[in-house]
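Entry 14. Ran structure prediction on the chain below.
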Amino acid sequence: MAGSVIDHAHVWMGYLARPRELLARSYDGIWELISNGTLVYIPGLSKTIHIGPREVALGLAVGIPALSVTRYLVYFVTGYIKYRMQASKTGLPMVSVPYLETNIFFSNLVRTNTYKRLFGMLPSWSKRWARWVRPEWRWIAKYSIHADMGDIFQVVTPEQINVNIADADVLMDVLNRRTEFTKYQPINGIVAVFGENVLTVEHHDWTRHRKVIGPSFSESTNAIVWNETIRQASAMLRYWRNTPPSDHKLLLHSLKLVGLNVMSYVEFGIPLPFDHEKDVTVIGEMIGALIAPKWLLPLLGNEFGQMLDAKAAIDSYIHAILEREESAPGQNVSESGKETLISALVKANAEAMAEEATGSPRAGLSNSEILGNVYVMILAALDTTSTALQFALINLAIHQDKQAWLHEQLDKDLASAEVPLSADPATWEYDTLFRKLTGPMCVAYETLRTHPSIPATLRWTGSEPRTITWHEDPLKSPRHIVLPAQSVVVLNFVGVQYNPKYWGLDAAEYKPERWAMESYTHEEQKDQGIQPSAKFPGVRRPPRGAFLPWSEGFRACLGRRFAETQMAAVLAVLFSQYRCEIRQQPGETSEGAKRRAQRALDGATMQMSLAARDRIELVWVPRK
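Output, structure tokens:
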């Protein structure tokens, strides 16, 4: 008996020693493992060994997990050594971590309460790397990690090197070299689920997409955005005013509904009421349907089946509009008779296809590519703009002095446009008022600076090393740094937007007035090189490369003016006649409510964009 146990133990050890050279075959119901000398290193076992099915199953149960662990450890160690050696050649500071924050399994694990409890039990030395593996670590750290490590540093893992950048000049250099630093495709693949679009393609394909998509974002489109946003924001305010706060949907939910309704009207010419409960349901269904791959949805139960139905309905509807536009161009218009965004898109595509028919290189988009771009537009309206407005409203409710500044500035803005304070927002004209909304735009920009919807974006060096030039010390010669091939370049937007080199020692403070030209004397404007924005005369131009909510360079966001128009209109409607406060919970003081709201902001998490997930209710009170 003892000998049998020892023999079995030796067999299992053999699985671990040379598993790939073992051959298994069936004979008379008995599994025969033939070693062919592979177990020669184990005394007494250099022969064919006959064991039963139970032993085989047990051997596999032990051997396969052990092999997987061994293989991972080998991969871990060799990968770490390889990338550590590459990173050391750059001369940049580095930190080593076991995995990237983009690892879906581990990034979700670190959010669990179990992990948090275990983390509290770890020795202090191991916690040095733990902060780097949370998906939101850049948002949590702001500029503080760069203050410790430098404006450019590396995070080294067994998988790759991540070069983190919070220097404005280097950021702009990378953004402008779009053929050398391409978008990081593993992340782009998430958005490509909708279909190839202007965010996912590169090189000539990107030029082709941009040529077709660009004309859709015209001033006439922005005027439609302005009018419909005012209508939706006014309806949202009435809902908030006439419904007890405890019965409200989440603040972010309401703002997403505004975004959805505006996009429905601007893109398809279909007006939707704000308070339609079915529309509220569709938001959640559509977002889930957009993000999840088609093949996965049927496997996830009835709720996800509804998402599949929602996506199928959206696909069918958009295809019908495309067919109608192609057969009768210009028929899909809004109630005002103006061309919708999808009409402009189809028109531009038809012109590109006509150019292609003359023998020019491929210029038009396929229907699936048009569909992909339409989805990306919807997602942007639902997510990034809505979360930015959520951050703006909560910040203004916390910082009552900043809200008072907005009220005062907004009154000046309306007066400068000769708009009476008592005028119905529905009468506000885009051409007359939008460019004069200094207060709302200062709030919008400061919110996007301190709470960027996308804290960072990724680029890729590709198959060749890339050289960047860094003026680390203005008193010394610039450094020329060679980044290894196949390295990820992380453009840390939140880092550069909190960098005191560009925003002063108060960079961490929420100060909308820092954007107002009137906040600076003529001497300060001259000494600091502060100039007015080309679009908004009362708003300062940000330091180049230090404010990137819409990115910059060749691949800057095409929908920037769309988002600016929507944010300015919502803020102007809400704060022209009302002020807001954080609704206090039972037994809570006003200051306690503000602290709770601040914790919600600080604890924002990433999904498609950064957003506060905790329930924060606002109370709207008429201005005196």
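DSSP finds 25 helices and 15 strands in the chain. Will compare against last week's run tomorrow.
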